[in-house]
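Appendix B. Raw example, untouched.
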Amino acid sequence: MTTHTEVLYNARCPVCRAEIDHYRSYAEARGLPIAFHDLNSAELASWGIGADAAAKRLHVRSEGRIRSGVAAFIALWRAMPRYAWLARIVALPGLRQAAGLIYERVLAPRLYARHLAREGRAGQDVTS
């Protein structure tokens, strides 16, 4: 089976891991061509992303493109029949921008700050 969708996520983040474990279970039970890669053990060079940038948001590679943030979630959801409806809704103009703002300004920065604290780097700048 050829993998058409690849997900790069932070397995050290309990929130990220729980969500991705749910998607992984769903995909594996249905034999979907989705691969899940922990950024802490994946070869990041093939993604063209450094470890710090990878930890800041979800990344998905599909259709020859790497997407991050809300666009990555949309690509992942499109690859899973149960979640295709969610992808269609979140991709709607206006809603996509609102979801992007919430993810980029609230959710991702908080998860990343927690990641830095877990990694013992809380004193570093979390905006870079």
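End of appendix B.
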